Amino acid sequence: MAHQSSIINHQSSIVLASNSPRRKELLTMAGFEFVVKSKNVEENHPDGMKQEEIPVHLAHKKAKVFLQEIADNEIVIGADTIVLLNGKIYEKPTDREDAINMLTALSGQMHEVITGVCILSKQKEILFSETTKVYFNELKREEIEFYVDKCKPYDKAGSYACQEWIGAVAIRKFEGDYFNVVGLPINRVYQELKNF
């Protein structure tokens, strides 16, 4: 059974279309009650789509699969995050070596984290994205290996989570929303839900 949102719009129930523990934590932190439902959605996109539009496209796909089964008072939130460095998208690593290679590429560089969000109900939908610039220190290979072996970041775009060891020692600064890098631009989501 869906819970009611405890802060915003007591008439609506919220469905989070994501298994991400980080997104669950952020929605809870913002004072929402919600249920988690997710379906396997093919994470593909049209050829030639601009890279910054891909996470919005995927967030929309993840939310839209619930459109036929939600009640009139239910709101679905879908989200997708990508890491973008020099025009290349870094998704979740396939194995240890892939994770090490990704972090080696990010070392000493500025990359962008883009999270696309879709909020929809039977009546309307809102699509938006948030971009945060992340500046990494230079990392030695043994530091990268230590992190990969300690935290096993295989379920994370770009092979890292900024709230773990690597965030404390390797990220020099953020430009933009920190929580966006965690997995959800919760400030913007909160404002959009307030107006929804």
Walk me through this protein's architecture.
By secondary structure, the chain is of the alpha/beta class. The chain has one domain (13-195): Maf protein (Alpha-Beta Complex). Helix content is 32%, strand content 25%. The protein is built from seven helices and seven strands; from the N terminus they run βαβαββαββααβαα. It has helices at 21-29, 54-64, 96-106, 141-151, 165-170, 178-182, 186-195, and strands at residues 13-16, 35-36, 74-85, 88-90, 110-120, 125-136, 171-175. Strands 1, 2, 3, 4, 5, 6 and 7 form a seven-stranded mixed sheet that branches. β5 and β6 form a beta hairpin. α3 (96-106) crosses α4 (141-151). The longest helix is centred in the first third of the chain and has 11 residues, at 54-64. The protein starts with 12 loop residues before the first strand and ends with a helix. The model is unreliable at 1-5 (pLDDT under 50).
Give the helix level as a range of percent: 25-40%
CATH topology title: Maf protein
Derived from helix and strand composition plus strand pairing, the structural class reads alpha/beta
Number of helices: 7
Counting DSSP E segments of at least 2 residues, the number of strands comes to 7
What gross morphology would you assign?
Answer: elongated
Number of domains: 1
Order of helices and strands: EHEHEEHEEHHEHH
Largest sheet: 7 strands, mixed
Jot down its keywords.
single chain, 196 residues, alpha/beta, Maf protein, 7-stranded mixed beta sheet, 7 helices, 7 strands, elongated, disordered N terminus
